[in-house]
Amino acid sequence: MNFTNPFCDLDGDKLREECGIFGVIGAEHAVAVTALGLHALQHRGQEACGIVTYDGKEFYAQRGIGHVASVFEGGDLHHVQPGSMASGHVRYSTTGGAGLRNVQPLFADLASGGFSIAHNGNISNAASLKRELVQRGAIFQSTSDTEVIIHLVATSRYPTLLDRFVDALRMVEGAYSLICMTPDGIIACRDPLGIRPLVMGRLGDAIVFSSESVAFDVIGAEFIRSIEPGELVQVDQQGTISSHRPFGNPKPRPCIFEHVYFSRPDSVMDGRSVYAVRKQIGVELAKESVVAADAVIPVPDSGMPAAIGYAQQSGIPFELGIIRSHYVGRTFIQPSEGARHADVKRKHNANRAIVEGKRIVLIDDSIVRGTTSKKIVEMMRDAGAAEVHFRVASPPTSNSCFYGVDTPERSKLLAATMDTAAMAEFIKADSLAFVSIDGLYRAVGEQNRNNKSPQFCDACFSGEYPTSLTDLAERERHDLLTLPINKVA
Ligand code: AMP
Question: Which of 7, 202, 257, 346 has the most neighbouring CB atoms within 10 Å?
Answer without folding.
Answer: 257
